[in-house]
Design a protein that fits this description.
Shape: globular
Helix content: over 70%
Distance between the termini: 21 Å
Number of strands: 2
Number of domains: 1
Number of helices: 6
Order of helices and strands: HHHHHHEE
Radius of gyration: 16 Å
Strand content: under 5%
Largest sheet: 2 strands, antiparallel
Structural class: mainly alpha
Length: about 180
């Protein structure tokens, strides 16, 4: 299977897999799995929205570097950081954790913006897989890190194929 076919399969089936994990967490009454699934779904659709804005060249989305930085930072902040903070927060430390999220999220975007030109696909994929391993260590479950790894692979393929949601042989298009 080539990377274009995997890209298209992930674009189509990833929301279905994430929703399936949401239903599985709901049926098993696992609130942390529900939070992770919602975070992954929000991250997926936020990235799709950024790609849609880039395709239609709306406002600051005309710059590919800006959109790449947004896509990576949305995956890390919403898909990983926010999901982890919400899953392990209590009423006592929720406000503090939310402030930490905003500060760290801004720092992640700033670092991503500065290093987007030097960041290779391989380094990005390794970094995102390490985050997936952190989710595995934290949750002690296989479903959440697997879905985060698939979401990370999809983001790497989106960046590799020129910020498009669907690819075709020889010609990259957006549908």
């Amino acid at each position: 299977m080539d990377s274009m076919r995997i890209h298209n399969l992930l674009t189509f089936y990833l929301p279905i897999l994430i929703f399936g994990s949401f239903v599985y967490g709901f049926l098993n009454e696992n609130s942390r799995m529900l939070i992770y699934a919602i975070g992954y779904l929000v991250s997926y659709f936020a990235i799709r929205l950024e790609l849609h804005h880039y395709y239609h060249k709306w406002s600051a989305h005309r710059d590919a570097r800006f959109v790449k930085a947004l896509v990576i930072s949305e995956l890390v902040t919403v898909g990983f950081l926010l999901s982890t903070i919400l899953a392990y927060s209590t009423r006592a430390n929720f406000n503090r954790n939310l402030m930490v999220f905003f500060i760290v999220g801004a720092l992640i975007y700033a670092v991503t913006w500065r290093s987007i030109d030097r960041l290779s696909e391989g380094r990005l994929c390794v970094f995102l897989l390490v985050l997936s391993l952190l989710v595995l260590i934290k949750t002690k479950s296989i479903l959440e890190p697997l879905i985060f790894a698939l979401l990370s692979l999809w983001v790497c393929l989106v960046l590799k194929h020129g910020l498009v949601t669907y690819t075709s042989k020889g010609l990259l298009t957006d549908c």
